[in-house]
């Protein structure tokens, strides 16, 4: 399975890692830290059963159209059906355009894409904790909102990662840095 993710500048990544660490230190959740190779990100797409070489070529062509862009996380949310706690970015025009361009560039693979990441259903988010027990979900949420301050940063890279649903975790296949000047 391949995922395409938006990766942040170092300062933004550090701020999100503080959430992950706080949850671990409070003995509430360490799900994000436990995934080998994981780092703070926003998933833009998830694809299964694609031919690697052809998919990678299409991904690289897409990257030629993308510049870095600003991002701001202003709220904390929960997906109650999966007990996921997350940060929600403001949906800037540039951010939504990157997502739309991704799917336009990868239209030959649309039948292989996970429906939850397609334009009509996509809820951009950066996970803080996943598959939290019902007994701990409110405590995890309270931990995340305690002293919450909005986070402003930059999406500097778009990465194609291969996700293994076992002890191998995440393998970064291709990660490209974009123009360092944020484009809003």
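Q: What amino acid sequence fits the structure above?
A:
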């Amino acid at each position: 399975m391949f995922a395409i993710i938006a990766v942040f500048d170092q300062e933004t990544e550090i701020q999100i890692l503080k959430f992950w660490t706080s949850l671990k230190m409070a003995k509430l959740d360490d799900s994000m830290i436990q995934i080998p190779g994981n780092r703070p990100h926003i998933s833009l797409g998830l694809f299964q059963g694609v031919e690697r070489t052809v998919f990678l070529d299409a991904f690289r062509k897409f990257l030629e159209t993308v510049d870095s862009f600003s991002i701001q996380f202003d709220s904390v949310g929960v997906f109650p059906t999966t007990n996921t706690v997350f940060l929600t970015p403001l949906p800037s025009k540039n951010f939504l355009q990157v997502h739309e361009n991704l799917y336009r560039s990868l239209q030959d693979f649309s039948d292989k894409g996970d429906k939850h990441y397609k334009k009509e259903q996509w809820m951009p988010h950066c996970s803080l904790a996943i598959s939290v027990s019902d007994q701990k979900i409110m405590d995890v949420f309270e931990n995340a909102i305690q002293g919450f301050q909005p986070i402003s940063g930059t999406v500097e890279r778009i990465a194609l990662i291969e996700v293994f649903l076992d002890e191998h975790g995440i393998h970064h296949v291709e990660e490209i840095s974009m123009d360092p000047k944020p484009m809003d």
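Q: And what stands out in the fold?
A: The longest helix spans residues 10-25.
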